[in-house]
Design brief:
globular, TIM Barrel, 15 helices, homodimer, 7-stranded parallel beta sheet, about 350 residues
C-alpha cells in the first residue's frame, strides 16, 4: 500500500509539494502529557527497548497535529550498545567506561549493530505497522563525531576537553575510533532501512565542539563516508550539522538529499551559503513557541517565506522542541505552516 | 610615568607593534596554583570585594608569563549589585530574585553604579598601583543582553527560555530593562576609567542566545549605545560578541576599536567578514592548550599568521582559558607568540 502522504518524501527528493511538509525534532516527547503518562510507568531505557511503547509514543504527536512525517522514538546513543559501552540515562546520558586513551581505543570491541540493536529494528517494524502508511517514518543515528564525543566524554560536556585532547594527542587512533564508529553507524542505518524506514536523519548535534579547521580535518571525512554509504540504502538522507553556522559550507559538500539548518543562522542566509539547488530543513527557534500566538505565527510564516528560495523546504524547528512547550502552541505552528500554503 | 609596554594599546589603536601583543581571557584564574591558594582562604565574592587580593591575583599571571596586558580580576555580574539583584556564587552564579514578568521589571530599583560598585573601583586603583605601569590594565563589563540574561534566568541556562519569553511577550518592557541596564553599565565603565583603567572589554558572552534577527532587533541597539558611550571615555574599547560566528557581521557595525573573535570561526574568515581595516583579537581554541607542545605551537603560529591580514591583531584565546590547563602550556603559548615576531 502506498503512503497516504508523500509531501515529506517529495520535498526530500527536490520536488515542491502543494503544501510545505512539517515535522518537529523531538515531536514525540516530554512536552506531551500522553508521553509523560507512558514515562511515568517505564524508564527511558525500558521505553527504548519496548517496540510497542516506541510505536505508541512515536504516533502520539500524529494524533494531535497534522504532521507530515513520524520519527522513530529512540536515542542517538542506543548505538553505543554495539560499541561495548554501558550507557545509562538518569536522565542525562552517562557512559560508565569512557574511552580516553590510546589503550582504551585499542581495547574497544566493536560489535555488529545487528547483534545488539535488534530491539531498535523491532521498534521500527512496530512503528511502521502502527503508522499503516499514514506518513513516512524517519530513522536516525548520530554522526560519528557526536557519537564519539559521548563515548569519550562519558556524558555531557561544555568544552569537549577529553575528546579534543585525544584528537590532538593521538590523531591516528582517534581516526581509527571515528572509522570504527562510522562502520557500525552504516550497519545500523542499513538495519533500520531493512525494517522499512522511509528516510534517514543524521544528527551532528555537537558539530560546534570543533573549530572549522579541526572539523574539516577530523570529522567531515567520516561524516561524508556515512552520508555516502547511507545514500546507497535507497532512502533520502538528511544531514543536520548543528551548532555552528559557519559549518554550513562544509555541510553543503555532503552528498545528502536534505541539509538541516539550526536557528543560529537566518534561513535565507543558509540557502545563500549552500546554494538554491539544495533542499533545506528548518529552522524556527524552538523558544518561539513561548511567544504569544500572533508572534509565533508571524515567525513561522517568516521562516516559510525564506524557505521559498530553496529548491524545496521541509519546515522544522532549528533544534528539538522544549519539554516546557504548550502543545496548543505546537498545534498553532503546524496549522500555520499548512494554512500558509492553502 | 608612562607605560613600560604599550604594544597592546598600540594595537588597539590600529598600529602594528614590533611584536604581536598577547593576553588571555581568564589569565588570572583557577589554572594557576597560586590563584587556588588565595581562593582556598576566601570565597569568590570575598575575593572580588578585596582590592588587595584582586590586585594580587590580577598580577599573578604577569609574574609567570610575558603578557602584554593585565585584566582586572572581577566578574561581569558584580554590576548586578547596582540592579538590586542578590547574586551568589556557589560556584555557579545564582540570582535569588530573578526578573521574569512585566511587574518584576516595573518594580526594579536601578541604583547608581558608583553607590554600589566602589569596591570594584578600589580594586582598579589597587591593581594600577601594583602594576606600577608595567603593562596596561583592562577593565570590563558584560554586554546588556548578557547581563540581562543572568538577571532574568537567575543563573545558567541552555535555552534562555525566560529571557526570550519575556522578550517575545513584553518587548517594550524588555527594551526598558535593556536600556536601564545599559545606562548603569555606562556609569560603571566611567567609574573604572576614572580609577585609571587603560582599555575596556565588553563581554557579550551569550550573544548566541538569540537568532541573528532577534539579536539585531533586541540586543544590538543597546550594545551599540554602550560601545558608543564607552568610546567617549577616552580609552580603547574591545567588543567580544561570542558564540555565534554569523553575528560577526553585526559586531562589525559597532564603533569599537577592537573586535574580539571566538574560536568558532577561522580568524582569516572573520577578518574577511569584518574587513581588513579592523583590529581583531583572538582566537585560539582554549582546548588547543591540551595538545602536545609542538601541536600547540603550530596552532598558535597559524592564528598569528592569519591575524596578519588584519589592520592589527591582539593574540588571545577564543574563549577563557580552561581551569584544567597546565601553566607550562600557557607559557609555551605566550612565548610562541613573541618568538614568532622576533
Amino acid at each position: 500500500m502506498p503512503l497516504a502522504n508523500t509531501s515529506f518524501l517529495d520535498a526530500c527528493r527536490g520536488q515542491r509539494p502543494a503544501r510545505t511538509p512539517v515535522w518537529v525534532m523531538r515531536q514525540a516527547g516530554r512536552y506531551l502529557p500522553e508521553y509523560r503518562a507512558v514515562r511515568s510507568k517505564v524508564s527511558f531505557t525500558e521505553l527504548c527497548h519496548s517496540p510497542q511503547l516506541c510505536a505508541e509514543v512515536t504516533l502520539q504527536p500524529l494524533d494531535r497535529f497534522d504532521l507530515d512525517a513520524a520519527i522513530l522514538f529512540s536515542d542517538i546513543l542506543t548505538v553505543l550498545d554495539a560499541l561495548g559501552a554501558e550507557v545509562e540515562f538518569n536522565p542525562a546520558p552517562h557512559v560508565a567506561n569512557p574511552v580516553r586513551t590510546l589503550s582504551d581505543i585499542d581495547g574497544l570491541q566493536f560489535g555488529k549493530a545487528d547483534d545488539h540493536l535488534g530491539y531498535v529494528y523491532d521498534a521500527v517494524s512496530a512503528c511502521k505497522k502502527a503508522l499503516n502508511n499514514r506518513v513516512p517514518l524517519i530513522g536516525f543515528c548520530g554522526a560519528p563525531l557526536t557519537t564519539a564525543s559521548y563515548l569519550v566524554e562519558g556524558g555531557g560536556t561544555k568544552d569537549f576537553l577529553n575528546t579534543k585532547r585525544l584528537m590532538f594527542t593521538e590523531p591516528a587512533a582517534f581516526g581509527r575510533l571515528m572509522e570504527g564508529i562510522t562502520t557500525i553507524l552504516i550497519d545500523y542505518l542499513a538495519g533500520q532501512v531493512r525494517q522499512g524506514i522511509d528516510a534517514i536523519q543524521i544528527f551532528e548535534s555537537w558539530a560546534a565542539a570543533l573549530t572549522p579547521e579541526d572539523y574539516r580535518e577530523h570529522a567531515l571525512p567520516h561524516l561524508t563516508r556515512l552520508v555516502t554509504e547511507a545514500k546507497k540504502l535507497g532512502v533520502p538522507v538528511i544531514a543536520f550539522v548543528r551548532g555552528n553556522a559557519t559549518l554550513m559550507e562544509q555541510a553543503a559538500t555532503l552528498p545528502a538529499d536534505v541539509l538541516g539548518v539550526d536557528w543560529s543562522i537566518q534561513l535565507s542566509r543558509a540557502i545563500e551559503v549552500v546554494g538554491a539547488d539544495k533542499v533545506v530543513q528548518g529552522n524556527l527557534d524552538p523558544i518561539a513557541l513561548f511567544a504569544p500566538p500572533e508572534v509565533l505565527a508571524a515567525k513561522t510564516r517568516a521562516v516559510l517565506q525564506e524557505g521559498r528560495a530553496a529548491k524545496a523546504h521541509i519546515f522544522n524547528l532549528g533544534h528539538g522542541i522544549s519539554r516546557h512547550t504548550d502543545p496548543e502552541q505546537m498545534k498553532l505552528l503546524v496549522d500555520t505552516v499548512h494554512e500558509a500554503d492553502a
